[in-house]
Amino acid sequence: MPSLIVRSTNFGLITALLALTALALPLPSHAVPSFARQTGMPCSQCHILAFGPALTAYGRQFKLNGYTFGKVESYVPLAMMIQGGFSRADAAQPAPPANHFNTNDNGSVDQLSVFISTRITEHTGIFAQSTYSGVDRHFSWDNTDWRYARPVTLFGTDAVVGVSVNNNPTVQDPWNTTPAWAFPYITSGLAPTPAASTIV
Fold first, then answer.
1. Exposure string (b/e) for 25-61, b if CB count within 10 Å is 16 or more?
2. Where are the alpha helices (DSSP H) in the chain?
3. By the 8 A CB rule, do 109 and 101 touch?
4. Model-level pTM?
5. CA distance 194 to 185
């Protein structure tokens, strides 16, 4: 019987090591995988250097046209993202930065996000993000942008007209450079950070 327990423990340990190895392997990044699947394009088609929020000319057109580009019909419009961190300062803070945390040396799951990003109709698309904050320990709607857009010709000039309904000022920015998307992309909810930010 003891040998069976040892084998079971070894099996669990080997399984855990294989899972960690698989998670650590570098994989191609997709900004929002469902848009990459929808368009059949690599991330670098829309994003500068294929990472970060800043958009290329094609990415701006994709966003301005209501997230509707692409001919791929069979894909799952869901994606997930997890952000974690370890916060350590030279000196401990006078009080814990949040409930359930210490004054220093805090490991955390900062965000766990679920995205629904897809073309809905020929002229309508959505980018929706719901996020669980591991620091505050609650879910909330994050950046959400529903768009209706269609190309038109006005006075002999091509244009795109439409409507963006969103829940965060500047999320509709076609360059993705304003406060909803701008640097620093990720901040810690547990470490002191500068209070200065872009004024909207």
1. eeeeeebbbbbbbbbebebebbbeebeebbbbeebbe
2. 2-24, 33-39, 57-64
3. no
4. 0.73
5. 14
